[in-house]
Amino acid sequence: MDPTLFSSIDFYQLAKREKNAQKRIRLLALAHVKEGKPRDEIAESLKVSRSSVNNWVRRFRCDGLEGIGNKQRSGRPVYLQPQQEELLRNFIESHKLSSDLPPLKGKDIHAFLKHYFDIDYDISHVYRLLKKLKITL
Hints:
By secondary structure, the protein is mainly alpha-helical. About 65% of the residues lie in helices and about 0% in strands.
């Protein structure tokens, strides 16, 4: 990164326009660093750790403004594979087409997932899964 970039950026203006609170705090920290304030004083005034301030400065110096943004988090891995989602979708659709069967409920989907895929979702997660797949019962 170009060292003059640090001095040419108005971090206060960027912080005023920033909607994300975490990024706004990072921009304010960089503004204070640019003014020459000690990092432990910056950390205390922003109610963050000194190591966080050091990390933000390092990330800014390495990657510019993109470096202080929120990083994508991996989250919990998905249990159902696309082909399993398709089998679930087919099961529900075929059940809907059969007029002599009672309507499916969350516990029925839960039992299907457990029996065929050995996946034991909580019943509330079954409904979240149906919503994600845009399936109505």
